[in-house]
Each structure stands twice: as structure tokens, then as C-alpha cells.
Amino acid sequence: MNVLVVYESRGGRTKKVAQSISKDASDKGHAATVKPIAETSSDEITAADCIIVGTWVEGFILFGVHPARATSSWISALPSLTGKSVSVFCTYAVNPRNSLDELKHGLESRGAKIGASQAFHRSRTEEKIGTFVDAALSVAM
Ligand SMILES: Cc1cc2nc3c(=O)[nH]c(=O)nc-3n(C[C@H](O)[C@H](O)[C@H](O)COP(=O)(O)O)c2cc1C
After folding, report:
1. If phi over 0 gives left and psi between -120 and 50 gives alpha, with beta otherwise, what is residue 82?
2. What is residue 23's predicted lDDT score, i.e. its pLDDT?
3. Torsion angle, CA of 33/50/45/73, rounded to 10 degrees?
4. CB-ligand 1 contact for 69 (6 Å cutoff)
5. pLDDT of amino acid 124
6. What's the pLDDT at 129?
7. How far apart are CA 132 and CA 50, in angstroms?
8. What is the distance between the alpha carbons of residues 51 and 66, in angstroms, rounded to a whole number?
9. CATH number at residue 76
10. CA distances from 31 to 4, 8, 41 (A)
11. 12: left (phi over 0), alpha (psi -120 to 50) or beta
12. What is the pTM of this model?
């Protein structure tokens, strides 16, 4: 399968998780590409069988926590995702609150079929990567 892992990262943690996800998918025999969202073209989105979108979260810890604004803006400008399997993840420091749901709703409104979702605490990013990738791939197959 053609797996595209796209991410928005400010400090590098989400990038690192995205790279680990891509490596895991590649180790499992898939053609995986990892890119920042800002460098991802519509053609790459269209060509992917399985898309995985990752972002850091921003807010005021106890309220107003949401996916990074750049991620939400990027999603609202995407071409139609009808029929595409899209899985989501975020990295966070304290509590991601409803960030994954916001991410899912934004992608569903573009027509995506949502697969797996996972929040990774920023200091425990390597945990659960294999399980998350397995779930994302199985939904897309
Ligand atoms: C301006 C700013 C606001 C943040 N707000 C929150 C927050 O409300 N809740 C939370 O759990 N983490 C919050 N974080 C932490 C980041 O989401 C977390 O460190 C993330 O892993 C950063 O990913 P990155 O290194 O890819 O940018 C915030 C970070 C920044 C820089």
C-alpha cells in the first residue's frame, strides 16, 4: 500500500513520531512517505491509499485545546477525500482534550473515512506506534 504520513510540528516531537510511524509502515512492507503538511501536494494526497495526519496541540492546558491552527487550515483547503482512509494522531504535553475529535471532524467534512486515532504524550512517543500503524493499515486495506 502507498502510505502517506503528513505532519505539522513546531518543536520536532510530532515530526519524530511521524518518522517512526513511516518507518514502521515501511518495515511492514509498505511504500511509506513522510512529509510536513506544508510540503504535501494534492497529487500526493490523491495517490495515497492510506493517509496518516499528525499534529501537535495548542491551547491553554485546561481549555481551548485544539490541533495546531496550521493543521486545521490545511485540512479545510484539502481536495475531496471521499473514499480515502485517513488515520490521525497528535502529540501533547498535558492533555489533548478534544483535539483528535476536532481533527477527525475536519477530515470527515472533506469526505475522509476515519481509521485509527492516537494521542502520544510528548515524552512517551515511541509507545503504541506499532499498534497504531497496524490499526491504520488494517482499516485502509
Ligand atoms: C504555544 C503552545 C501551546 C501548547 N498548548 C498545549 C495545551 O494546551 N495542552 C497540551 O497538552 N499541550 C500543549 N502544548 C504542548 C505541545 O502540544 C507538545 O509539546 C507537542 O508535543 C509539541 O509538538 P512539536 O514538538 O511537534 O511541536 C503547547 C505547546 C505550545 C508551544
Report:
1. beta
2. 98
3. -100
4. no
5. 87
6. 97
7. 13
8. 20
9. 3.40.50.360
10. 8, 21, 17
11. left
12. 0.97
User: Residue 128 sits in which domain range?
Assistant: 2-140
| Spacing, Cα 56 to ligand 1 middle (Å) | 6
Residues 6+ apart with CB under 8 A from 135: 87, 115, 116
pLDDT for residue 44: 95
Residue ranges, the chain, pLDDT below 50: none
With both helix axes pointing from N to C terminus, report the angle between 99-108 and 69-76 in degrees, rounded to the nearest 10: 10
**Terminus-to-terminus CA distance in the chain, angstroms?**
8
- CA of 7 from ligand 1 middle (Å) equals 14
Identify which of 92, 97, 100, 126 to mutate to test ligand 1's pocket (most ligand atoms within 8 A of the CB). 92
Q: Around Cβ 3, how many Cβ atoms within 10 Å? A: 25
Number of domains in the chain: 1
CB contact set of 32 (below 8 Å; sequence gap of 6+): 3, 4, 5, 22, 23, 25, 26
